[in-house]
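Review box. Two proteins, two foldings.
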Amino acid sequence: MRAPSGLLGPRGPLPLALLCLLAAARGSLADGQPTASPLTSLPIRREMMTKYSNLSLESHNISLTEHSNVPVEKNITLERPSNIELTCQITISRGVNSVNVTWKKGDELLENYLTNATGCILYAQYMFTIINSKQMGSYSCFFGGEKEQRGTFNFKVPEIHGKNKPLITYVGDSTVLMCKCQHCSPLHWTWYHSNGSVQVPIDVQMSEKYAINRTNANETRLKIMQLTEDNQGSYWCHAVFQLGESEERVQLVVLSYLVPLKPFLGIVVEVAILVAVILLCETYTQKKKKHIDDGKEFEQVEQLKSDDTNGVENNAPRHRKNESVSH
C-alpha cells in the first residue's frame, strides 16, 4: 500500500495501523466528534457482574495479525473466583465489516459478547464471571474471513511443584517429601502413596510412621520414619483450590545398605575368580613340567640299561677270542 500524499514518515510510508487510526481521527474530527480510545470505545457491561461485584476483575488481551496462520494462546492461572474481561483485537486491511466474529468455550458457542471497530482495528470482548471449576477451561475468539484467525485464553489453577528427580534414601532412615505452590494458598493438602495404579491416601492419625507439617499454607511436608523397601514408590501431593485441584508426583527410592556394597563385592568375586584361574594354570603347568621331567629321567635310565646290555654283549665275543688265542 502506498501512503497518501503528506503522510510519509521520516523513514518511509507510515504503518497500516497508524494510517487507519489517522483516517478514523480525520473522520471523527470532520464530524465534530473526538476520537475515542480503542479499549474505552467498548461498552463496559458491568451490569452482567453486579451479582459478583465483590470479586476482583481480571483483564486479558490478545493481539492477532491478519496474515498469520498461527493461533495465539495465552495461559492464565486463576486461584479464586473472579470477574473476567477478555479482549481480542486484529488489524483488517480490507474492511472490518467483512469479518465475522464468534466466541467459543471449547466447542460451545458463546453469546452476549461485544464488538467494536476503530479505523482498521476490530475489537471483540467477552465478559463473564468464573465461580467454580466447571467454568475453567479454554475461551477462544474467532475472526472469520479469507483466513480464520483464532486467539485462545486457557484458564487453569496454579501448578504444584515438587522434587523433579527421585529422592534416594536407605532402609531405616527418615526422609521428608515436600510440595510447594508459588504465590498461592490451597484450601487443603492431601498426600497419597501409590506403588502401582492405585493411590492410597495417607492418614497420619492412623499411623505413627507419617507426619505432615502444615506450617506454611503454600507448602506441605510429609515425613516418613523408619523406612523399609515397601515404602518406596510414587507419592502424590494433592492441592485443592476454590476453582479446581492440582497435584504433583514425588518419586521415593529406598535402598538397603548392601546395595552400595554390590559393586565392591562384584570386584572381590572377579579378583577371586582371576586368582583361582591363575593358581589352576600354575598347578597345571607344574604338573606338566614334572611329568616331562619324569619322562626324560625314565628315558635316561632306559638308555643306561641299554648301554650296559650292549657292553656285556660286546665283551663276550672278545673274551672267547682271547681264550682261543691262548690255546
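Next protein.
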Amino acid sequence: MSRRIMERDLQSPRSLSQARHRRKSTEAFPDVAKIIESDLLVNDQNKYRSMWIRTYSSVCMLMCFILVVYLGHLYLWGMIVVIQILMTSELFNLLRRATEDKRLPGFRLLNWHFFFTAMLYVYGRILGQQIMHAVTPEKFFYKLATKFMKYQMVICYFLYITGVMWFILTLKKKMYKYQFSQYAWTHMILIVVFTQSSFTAANIFEGIFWFLLPASLIAINDVAAYFFGFFFGKTPLIKLSPKKTWEGFIGASVTTVISAFLLANVLGRYQWLTCPRRDFATSWLECDPGPLFKPETFVLPEEITRWLPWKEILILPVQWHALCLGLFASVIAPFGGFFASGFKRAFKIKDFGGSIPGHGGFTDRMDCQMVMAVFAYIYHQSFVIPQYYPVEVLLEQILGSLTFEEQELLLSKLKEVIEGRQLQN
C-alpha cells in the first residue's frame, strides 16, 4: 500500500515540476569542482592543439591588421564597417528560425533596413566634418552634402518610420510573437553592438593612435590572460566563463598596464598615427603633434635610481593617459567578455560563429573591444582634447552650416567688428 502511495506521489505534477526545476538549475552553471576538474586549460587534453590553431589565426589577423593600419584612416574605417556587418549577421542568425522565415518573405531585408538606417545616422553624426571635406566647395556634390548634413536627422527619422510601418504591415497571425521578438532583437543589436562599435570610427579619425592603442591593449590582455591561465591557471574566476582563472586575470592585468605605458611611447612617435584626419584622403599626414606627444624629461625617484644606471628618462605625457587606458582594459573591459559568455550560455551555444578558427566568430573577438572603444572616446573627449573650440573647428561648422552668401555676410560683419576695435585702440 505504502509503495503505491510513493509511486503516486512521484508521478504527481508537483513532484515532476520540482524534478524538472532541479534539472534546470544544474544546467545553468556547472559546479566549481567540475570546473576545476574538466574545464580549466591546465587540465585540457587538447590544449596544445587548440593553442596552435589559435596562434596561427592570431598571426594571420595581425598581419592583415598591420597592412590596414599602414593604408590609413579610410581603410581602417572600411575594416570596421565590414566587421560590424559580419557581427550583425552573426547575431541576426542567432535567433532566426528557417520555418518561420519562409512564411515571412522580406523579413530579413527589414532587419538590414534598420541596420543601414542606423549606420547612416551614426556615421553621419560622427564623420560630418570628414564628409564636408570630401567634396569640393561650390560644386554640386558640396551642395548635396551640405543639404544632407542639414537634414540628416529628418532623413534618418523617416527611414526608421518607414521600417516601422513596413514591420506593422507584414505582421501575420500566429507569427506575432516571433516577429516582435525579432524586432526587439534587432534593436538590441543596434544599441548594444553597432552603436558602441561605431565609436571606433570616431577614435580613428581623431588619430590612429587613439584607436590602435586601446585595441592593442585589449588584444594584449586577451593573449596574456590565455597564456597565464594556460600555464598557471588553477583558481576559477567566474562561473560564466569556466576557463577564466584568477591567475590569468591578475597576470594579464599587470602585463596590460606595463604594456600600455611602453607601447604609448612607441606609437606616439609617429605622426601618421598621432595626427587627426579631417577628410577621407589617403595621403601622408604631417601636423604639430601637440604637447602630449613631445618628449619630456622625467626624474626617477632615488629609491629606483639605486638599482638603475640612469637617473632620468624621456617620456611622452600621453603615457600617463595610457596608464588609465591600460587599467580600464585589464579590469573593466573583460566584463564585456563575461557578458558575452553569459549570453552564449543563455542560448546554449559555444561561439557566435565560426569565421575565425580557434576564436569563434567576429562577435567573440569584439566583445571587449566595443566596451573599450566607448571608454577611449569618452576619455579622449573629456581629458585629452582642449575644452575650448579651436578656430579650425569653428571654421568647419561655418562652412558646413552656412550658404556661400551667408558666409560672405559673416565675413563682412567680422571685418566691421575688427575695424571698429582697431579704431578704439
